[in-house]
Amino acid sequence: NGMLPLLNDTNEEDLAPAAARLAKFFARPDVLFTATRGREGSPPDQTSVAFPYSGYYVMRSDWTRDARYLMIDGGPWGTTHQHGDKLSFVLSAYGVDFLTDPANTLYANNEPDALISILNAGFLHNTITVDAVDEFMKGPEDLATTVPLVNRWEIGARHVLFEGAYDFAPLKAVRWRRRVLFVDQAYWILQDVLTGSETQPTIEQNF
């Protein structure tokens, strides 16, 4: 629909004006196609694509408004305004948003710090919690990357596969691995695998 995907600390924004300028500057008919929502230009050659430095991965059936579309965040923590949303994703199909993300809030409204903390929490994203423990910010080594991230991305004749992991240590001795399989550009299979030494933890899948 031409809007910026709502992940992490994103604001809702129509990307068409910026895409139109880029299409003209670089003479890119595929960017023009997205800028004009298919009225001009030609669709991109790829439907599913990985951005291994930022950690964003996109699975798409086609370039129509009714496309099946999923975007997952397998990236590192940012340096500011982090949300506990690693391995969260958004999903739409047939012009309808099925799994969304709360993204940003209007800080200018002077919400209490407690409310902002809730909006940043993992359980409001499409993630896992362990004994009600959300994802949490880690050390400087997790803030940025200069090399491709260690996530699995595979495109086959009839499937697209993403696999990434998040470690709840030291708060919880649990490692979470999420796999998303896009089959025949028609449907997804989601698999969450948790391993560790916690005794009978309460695991919640949040959507």
Can you tell me about this structure?
The protein is of the alpha+beta class and 207 residues long. It is built from three helices and eleven strands; from the N terminus they run H-H-E-E-E-E-E-H-E-E-E-E-E-E. It has a five-stranded antiparallel sheet, with no helix packed on it. It has a four-stranded antiparallel sheet with strand order 7-8-9-10, with no helix packed on it. The chain has a two-stranded antiparallel sheet with strand order 6-11. Strand 9 (174-183) and strand 10 (187-196) form a beta hairpin. The mean pLDDT is 86.
Question: What are the key terms here?
Answer:
alpha+beta, 13% helix, 207 residues, 3 helices
The ordered string of helix (H) and strand (E) elements is: HHEEEEEHEEEEEE
What is the helix tally?
Answer: 3
Write down how many β-strands occur, each being a DSSP E stretch of 2 or more residues.
11
**Overall pLDDT:** 86
Give a short account of the largest sheet. Answer: 5 strands, antiparallel
- The coarse overall form would be globular
Q: Approximately what portion of the residues adopt beta-strand conformation?
A: 25-35%
What's the Cα radius of gyration? 18 Å
Oligomer description:
single chain
CA-to-CA gap between the ends?
22 Å
Q: How much helix, percentage-wise, in residues?
A: 10-25%
Enumerate the strands of the largest sheet in spatial order, edge to edge or round the barrel. 1-2-3-4-5
Poorly predicted regions: none
- Going by helix content, strand content and strand pairing, the class is alpha+beta
